[in-house]
Amino acid sequence: MRCPKCNYEDSRVIETRSVENGGVIRRRRECPGCGNRFTTYERLERNKVLLVVKKDGRREVFDKQKVLRGMVRACEKLPVSLETLENAASSIEEELFGMGVGEVPSSLIGDMVANSLKEIDHVAYVRFASVYREFTDLQNFIEEISKLLRKEEGGKDRQ
Ligand SMILES: [Zn+2]
């Protein structure tokens, strides 16, 4: 790190501290040239681009809007607010970038969207799952649906 005072091209770190729950590293530095002390903050920079690997091996840049559109489509005519879906899409994005990898398989995103919709609206989940998720066989699909229905029975007093 260059000294901001004399422009000496190196500095000694005299103290390192993690702030904001580890998201930012604060360093006290000293310039060996002029003795100037200064503080730098390093923010963990997440990858700017995340590539989605499709089943056929093609890659495309991850696009949160695309995730959101899929969720909006699944929730069409259901009592789910856009805000709820936007929040869900943002958490999926955060989680994906938080993994710190450059590429993720499209199936992972599909699973995350499915899981998220399961929490939001069961009808939306089933719609999404029947289109995007590969249930290995019909039996799997039926089991999944009956699990949801049992849950619905149990949680009727919610409404
Ligand atoms: Zn200096």
Automatic annotation (TrEMBL):
Cofactor field: Zn(2+)
MF term (GO), any: ATP binding
GO biological process, one term: negative regulation of DNA-templated transcription
Keywords: ATP-binding, DNA-binding, Metal-binding, Nucleotide-binding, Repressor, Transcription, Transcription regulation, Zinc, Zinc-finger
PROSITE patterns, sorted: ATP_CONE
InterPro entries: ATP-cone_dom, NrdR-like_N, RNR_NrdR-like
Zn-finger (unnamed) residues: 3-34
Domain spans labelled ATP-cone: 50-140
Cofactor note: Binds 1 zinc ion.
Protein role: Negatively regulates transcription of bacterial ribonucleotide reductase nrd genes and operons by binding to NrdR-boxes.
Membership in a protein family: Belongs to the NrdR family.
HAMAP family: NrdR (MF_00440)
Name recorded for this polypeptide: Transcriptional repressor NrdR
Species: Acetomicrobium hydrogeniformans ATCC BAA-1850
